[in-house]
Specification:
The chain is of the alpha/beta class. Helices cover 50% and strands 12% of the residues. It is built from 10 helices and 7 strands. It is elongated and about 90 Å long.
Length: 313
């Protein structure tokens, strides 16, 4: 195997040299072809100077400097784009992931899996601010996606290049890569990995990130289930609104002629008109989304299927 390690860095100056040594101590005895891509995500604490020193001392250490902070997902995507090895392993720069777990991840890929996700089974984080929200989010993600993993938030994962290089991610969606890979037919597994308390620097995670994950999960679910037929979502809601409008209209007529109430004495006329308009707009938006989806596929010559293998072509 040949290996690309991707490490997003945002204000981790005191951790860089320690992690660099740990990685070297683990990877050098393995006698494999590897590279380590550090992605400086707009750090302003001197991390850029530390990274340049690491790169100058070891040609296997490569550095990408962002102009400003774009987020962990953007950093991982940049690392994947500029990596050149068969296996891709992202990990955090805060020393909470252990490079000693890398050989164990690779062993799982050698068994035939395409993705091996790390599971921080014994987390060393604040139980209220970090562990509990993460546990609830993981259960929700597994339920919605159908991919059963204990820890989507663990950055330490191993991927085969062919299952991740075509995936485009935005927002905080790097944690959902195993879901996209599974939907495309990849074999996904997980192993328990070590987790350590943060020694230096400040955590960039908080409760607000949980809400971002929930919103991103909604996008992932839509992408996975309705991307090729968006009319099913918008149109389905539009038909539901038409139904409510029709029921309101019938009740309005009933009260007018048999209930001794004029139209202005009930909100039913307003409901009938409002839901009719909302239903029409929803179906119209669904049509526009269908046109956009077809433009997306046809303008870039993208297929609506994925081929696993071909012979004698």
């Amino acid at each position: 195997m040949n290996l690309s390690i991707i490490i997003p860095v945002f204000n981790e100056r005191d951790n860089i040299e320690i992690l660099d040594k740990k990685l070297t101590d683990v990877l050098e005895p393995m006698n494999i072809d590897y590279e380590v891509i550090w992605v400086n995500d707009g750090s302003d604490d001197g991390s850029d100077e530390k990274l340049n020193q690491v790169a100058a001392a070891n040609k296997r250490m490569k550095v990408i400097h962002f102009r400003k902070n774009f987020g962990q997902t953007a950093a991982i995507m940049a690392g994947i784009k500029f990596s050149s090895r068969e296996i891709i392993i992202p990990m955090d720069a805060d020393l909470q992931n252990d490079p000693a777990d890398i050989p164990r991840l690779l062993e799982k890929l050698e068994e035939g899996y395409d993705v091996c996700s790390g599971w921080r089974k014994e987390r060393k984080d604040n139980p209220v601010k970090r562990t509990l929200p993460s546990m609830l989010a993981n259960k929700m993600i597994s339920w919605v996606s159908g991919v059963k993993l204990h820890d989507y938030g663990c950055t330490l994962k191993a991927y085969r290049r062919d299952v991740v290089e075509s995936i485009k991610l935005y927002g905080e969606m790097h944690r959902f890569i195993p879901i996209y890979a599974s939907w495309e037919g990849a074999k996904v597994t997980e192993i328990a990995v070590s987790h350590y308390p943060r020694r230096f620097g400040k955590s960039k995670y908080g409760l607000n990130r949980t809400f971002k994950v929930i919103l991103d999960l909604m996008v992932v679910k839509f992408y996975g289930s309705y991307f090729q037929k968006p009319i099913y979502v918008a149109g389905g809601f539009g038909i539901f609104c038409f139904f409510i409008s029709f029921i309101s209209f019938l009740m309005m007529i009933y009260y007018k002629f048999w209930g001794n109430k004029s139209f202005i004495q009930t909100p039913l006329p307003l409901f009938a008109a409002l839901f009719f308009i909302v239903g029409f707009i929803s179906i119209f938006l669904g049509m526009l989304a269908e046109m956009q989806m077809r433009t997306y596929h046809e303008s870039q010559d993208k297929t609506t299927y994925l081929i696993k293998d071909k012979r004698n072509f």
